[in-house]
Each structure stands twice: as C-alpha cells, then as structure tokens.
Design goal:
homodimer, 39% helix, globular
C-alpha cells in the first residue's frame, strides 16, 4: 500500500505499520490511517472520477487502505442516491437540503461501507472468520458482506436488537449471540471472544480501517454535489465511528484539493443517550449514560470511538443537538411524506436534528444542509407502525368504502 | 412521443393512440405499447449506453414511453446490482448463475420500476392523485415514488399484507385501505373506486405503460452481462405483469439488434397458487385458484395479466415450475448464505424454481441462468425468522458463552 503511510494514534501520536490486522495503540488510543496525499493527488482527480462508471464505494480505491490487487468484495456497497429535497427545505425554511439515503445499501445501512472494508482487509489478513459486536446494523452488514465472500461470522448483538436485523443475521448464516445486557456488555463479551479465538476484528472502534470504509459516504456526497460544499452535514451519532469517518472523508478531499472548504458537522443524538453531545455542550470529558431511546442503532451509552468523534465535531466547528423519540418519529414521517425516503429511527435522527435547529432559528434561509439517512426503516417496522397508526379496514364493497371515507373525514373527490 | 407508435390490444389487435391515461381495449384485452424501432436503433447503441453514467432505469429513455421533456421522477429506481454467484452455481450444478437483486430499489422491490413510470405518466396526464390495488409491493412503491413527486395516493391492499409493506405505506403518507378479502376482491374494489373518482390508475394489468417500466430490469440485466445472453431468465410470477415486462424488454433489445438471441423464461409459481403455470402445463386456458402460499406478493388466484404472461412464457419456449413454501424458505436461506442477498419469499421464488429444476435434472452443467430477486426480505421479517430459528441467547460472561457454544455444538476454534 504505497499510498498509505501508517496508522497513527489519535491520543499519543505513535505510528504503526499498516498491517491488515491493525488494532488500537498500546496506550489504548484509536489509530487513524494516514495517506501520502502527494502521491494520490495526481491519480484521483475530478476528471478521473467523472470517467468512472463503478457505482460503488470502490470507485475511490486510491483513497482506501487496501493493496492494489485486493479484490472489492462481492456486494455492491455505496453510491447511494442523493436527493435534492426542495419541498422539505421550504417546509423547514432552509436554502437547500439534500438527503443521502444510505439505507439503500445491500443490507440496508451505512454500515455496509465498513463491512465491505472489513471483508477486504480480512482477506488480506488471510482470515476465514470475522466477528463483531453491534447494536444491529454493523452485525447484519458484516454477516451479509462476509457471506457473499464465503467468510464465516460470529456476531454479538444486545438482546434488544429489532427483529429485522435479527432476521438478516440468521438468513446470512451468521452465528448470532444475543447478549442479555447493554451494548457495552455486548462489546466487552465480543472483545474477550475475539481475543480468545483470534477472529478478524470488525469492531469499528478497534479496527482503524473501518472508518476508512465509512468515509466513502462523504466522498460520494461531495462528488454527487459536483464538489460544491454545503454549509452543514448532519447525521446521527452513537458509537462515534460514523461521524469520525464522515469527517475523515471530508478532510481527505480537502487535502487533495477536490473541495475548497470544509462543511460544519451537525452531531445529532437522542435525548435519552447523548454522552458525546453532552461532552461538547459542557466542554467536558464524556461520561457514560443510560441507553434510553428507541433509536436502537445509536443507543450507545459508552461510545467506543469518543476520541475521534469529539475531535471531528470540534475540528469542524460543529453543532450538537439532541432530539426526543417523538421528534425522531416525526422526522421519519416527514422524510417519508416529502421525500419518499423511509429511514429507521436512528437513520432519520440526523434529519430530526436539522428540523429542530431550524425551529430554534439556529439554521435558516441562508443555510445549505446535507443530511445522511443511515439505515432503512424496514429494519424496524414496529416503531414505524407505532408512529403512523393503522390502515383503514374495509369490506370489499363500495358502500362500505364510502362509509369508511366518511368515518375518517376523507374526501376522495 | 415520436418513438412510440401506439397501444395495441394483445387480444384483438386494435390500435389506440398512446395518450397518457391509456387503459385496456374495448374488447377487454390488455394493450401493448409498440415502438418505432427503426427510429430508436441509431439512437440507442451499445456505445451510447456505455457512455451514460445514470445508474437508473431512466438510462433507457429512448425505449420508454414518455415525452422527451417528461422529467424522471425523483426516486432513483433501477440499476440494481447483478451478482455473479459462482459458489451457488457450483452447489446447484449450473455452468453460470447470476442473481439480480431488485430488492435494492428505493422501496425495496422491482415494482418501483412500474411506479416510477406511473408517476411520470401521471404527471403527463396532469393528475394529482394516483391509485392502485396491490398485494403490497406495488402499493408501497407507488406510495414512495408518488410522495417524492408530491402526488397523493389511494392504496388498496388485502388485509394479509405483511407489516413491513404496511409500515412503508403509512410512512409515505398514503391513504391505505386494508380490504377484508382476497387480492381479487381488493382489485375489484380499487377498480370501482378509480372509475368513480377518476384517479390516475396504477394497476399494472390496466395501465399498459407499467410493463414498460418493469421491462427495464431485463434491459439492465443484458447490459450488465455485456450483452451476452444467458440460456434462461428465472423469476416468480403472480399477476403476470412482471414476466410480461421482462419478456418485452428482451424482445426490444432483440429488435434493436443489441442482443443476438432470446433467453428462455422460467416461470416459477407457488404450488398453492399457480394458475398460470397450470395453464401452460395443461396447455389449457387458465382457471382461478386459491391463494394458498406464504409468498404474499405472488399469491394471486386471478392473475390480471394472464394473456401477456402466457404469451411471454410460450413465445420464449419457457419452462414452468411450482415450488412449495418450504422450498421457498430454503431458497431464501441459500441466497442469504451463499450470496449475501436477503429476498422476501416471493422475491426468492425464482431461485427456488431454478434449484428445483437442477434437482430434477432439467437444468445442469451446460446451462447459464439469471435469476431475478424481486423484493427485499426486510419486507417480511416474520417468515424469515420462522425459517431460520433464533439467535443463541447468552449472558454477558465468557463461561456462559463457552457453555452456549457447547450446548449448540459450535466449535469456535
């Protein structure tokens, strides 16, 4: 990997050779993959990208930490659609709003980007087994991407994981351990098991390559925007790995001269579980919190990648905002009705935050915002139905239909 | 639409001008949109397509029945991934097998292709309201595509529709009528309501433009295969509209000289509901059947597009095969474990049929097959969990984990 310099600890600065099974620093800090931008700059230009048809994250191979001959894993991950949302922008009072629907990845979440990278690196490492702990999406994405590549998986999820994610895991043939405890308990058990059996580690807060997969969402976002940088990029935050990855991608593009300024990040957490946003708001070290939200993917009381996430928010002069579960479900409906995008609760939390900042007057008519939907609503149907009520039940008869419309105050004319 | 000649009745041959709200023939027959291939041929070449980046069904605009200035609707439909599946091919004893995962469309089914077309034509017709009846997927795709375009929808679904599809409908803001009856009852009620209130009709067996949307799945398939035609294209069949659309696309490409032969279709239905396959097998007119299968999307006892579907199967010298619900769930697991593709029951029914034909020796080591997965497994989580059992429940403790592995006969080493 001539374009990769090393893995550098974000805490103590120590540098490590970029071997395929790189983990955390001896000091406990998380590593950041550093690149030789001078080498990459002439190879990855706007023109080069404009000529590429590959509609996947692997179109950015020059910025990904893999060997030149490492095959892209089988599932087609990335190049999710970016929608201009003029009606929603108008409703919220924004100048421009774009919605990037990452729920349209193969296993229906942004986490596919990290899992595709994990499979590529596991192959480089010669591993046959990959393992992770996850609130659900990292798990199902790892299971799917590994199955397509013929690799075996051990997956640890908290017992609260929604049925949709569990169904995916089982269908993909993963060995699924449902841990009776919090995400923190789940993470620790997976860590111990990985150490014991030597599986390839897909925990995003341990394996520094995974953020590099996640960063492709912002590479795509900027290319899809024609390299015009929005004022803000909003997304939900749990473990901290995704926002760290998003920031890394933006900084890569800035270092290469592909964008001429950096957007500010908007970190959105659930009111019932917001340890990172609290740390920013209080300008204090983060402290653990309860995991009290229906947005299961971001119900992370002990964020495993707090250092990188907090650095990203601070470096970008970012905003933080917390939203209630009700505000999350309202955002789900809003995105469905105005954009035809159905996100899971954590998936729409970024948009819920944007809406709240608009209502508070923090964002307004001069601002352009991109909001990333990180997972598909089909993963958690129960909460969507809870938020939306029921269909109108009718017998197959026109008189009954007329009555049903009248009863529900609907004028079909 | 200078490239469109007319809508021609498949039963009596009568021709109608291609107005935006075209429906069925006066004789009751379904119309088929006919094109001026001589006009299209020089405009839609392999080179022209190779230069297009648009990763959506609208890359084939020259072959779609819309005005030149009709905008493509907002949601990005089509250009779903095609996966080479060498391990599954080997397991089944086929020369080559490709899986096209159409469950990765915006609302997670192939039906998005027809709904995108419906939205485009409704706009041409100046309509503000679109309606349809559906076993579920046409409904949720119409609701999503219409919401993104700012159009209102009335949707009729049988009360058996799975929760995932209902959740989508409600989130997209459709007015949803859950009809206490069969799909046939649901269809008839929607037909009466559409006639009464004059909504734009998105019933695929009435509106001849919708097949033209669906056909894009085979246009893509052939382009993704580099215009090398497989021996067979397999898919599940319910109403008959999808297989008719698939065949139409193949014939279009053949007429334009973009492919040099036509594949044979494999029509797969559920044993508990196979009126079309029965008609082919008995070489007799089709007769209604009970709707007795868990594959809800193809549980269609009175297929509304029997004429086009039967013509497609016969013209292609196609094969028909029926599969049990158990075989469907087995195919779901097989696709998950070997390809990382999670399809809903009806979505994987095509692959279930391929597997059965391999076991029967009808297909074998000389054959190349493309199998279309028509919908995402996340739409029907209950059946997937039923098929796959449960995760292994453990307390967050290494001793408990060791015990759980031992109890389940798992050797993690």
């Amino acid at each position: 990997m001539e374009h990769v310099l090393c893995g550098k600890c974000v805490r103590c600065g120590r540098e490590y050779p970029a071997v395929p099974d790189l983990k955390t620093c001896g000091c406990g800090g998380i590593l950041d993959i550093t690149y030789d931008y001078d080498r990459i700059r002439p190879r990855l230009t706007k023109d080069v990208l404009a000529g590429r048809r590959t509609p996947s994250m692997w179109r950015y191979r020059e910025l990904l930490p893999v060997e030149a001959d490492t095959p892209a894993p089988p599932l087609r991950v990335g190049w999710s659609p970016l929608y201009d949302a003029p009606r929603l922008a108008e409703q919220l009072g924004l100048k421009e709003l774009w919605i990037k629907d990452d729920g349209l990845n193969p296993t229906a979440s942004l986490k596919d980007r990290a899992s595709s990278m994990a499979v590529a690196k596991a192959r480089e490492a010669g591993a046959q087994v990959i393992a992770c702990s996850s609130t659900g999406n990292a798990a199902s994405s790892l299971a799917g991407n590994a199955a397509a590549a013929g690799l075996q998986t051990y997956i640890f999820v908290p017992s609260r994981a929604p049925q949709g994610k569990v169904a995916q895991l089982l269908t993909f043939g993963a060995t699924v351990l449902s841990v009776q405890g919090s995400y923190e308990d789940t993470f620790e058990l997976s860590k111990a098991a990985i150490a014991r059996w030597g599986w390839y580690d897909r925990n995003a807060a341990v394996n520094p390559y995974l953020s590099e997969g996640k960063k492709t969402v912002s590479l795509e976002l900027m290319e899809q925007l024609g390299w015009c940088v929005p004022d803000y990029v909003a997304l939900s935050v749990g473990d901290g790995c995704t926002i760290a990855g998003v920031w890394k991608g933006l900084k890569d593009l800035y270092a290469l001269g592909l964008i001429d300024r950096l957007p500010r990040l908007i970190s959105v957490q659930a009111e019932g579980c917001c340890p990172l946003n609290r740390a920013i708001a209080e300008d204090a070290p983060w402290r653990p919190m309860e995991e009290n939200t229906l947005a299961d993917s971001i119900a992370v009381g002990v964020p495993r990648n707090a250092e990188k996430a907090l650095m990203a928010i601070r470096e970008s002069h970012g905003l933080v905002v917390n939203v209630s579960d009700e505000e999350i479900l309202e955002a789900q409906k809003l995105l469905g009705r105005t954009c035809g995008v159905f996100g899971e609760p954590a998936g729409v939390t970024g948009t819920a935050g944007v809406r709240k900042l608009c209502e508070q007057g923090v964002l307004g008519a001069k601002d352009t915002v991109a909001s990333i939907v990180t997972g598909n609503g089909l993963k958690d149907v129960a909460n969507a139905i809870r938020a939306n009520g029921s269909p109108i039940s009718v017998a197959p008869d026109m008189q009954q239909l007329l009555q049903a419309f009248a009863d529900n105050g609907i004028d079909p004319a």
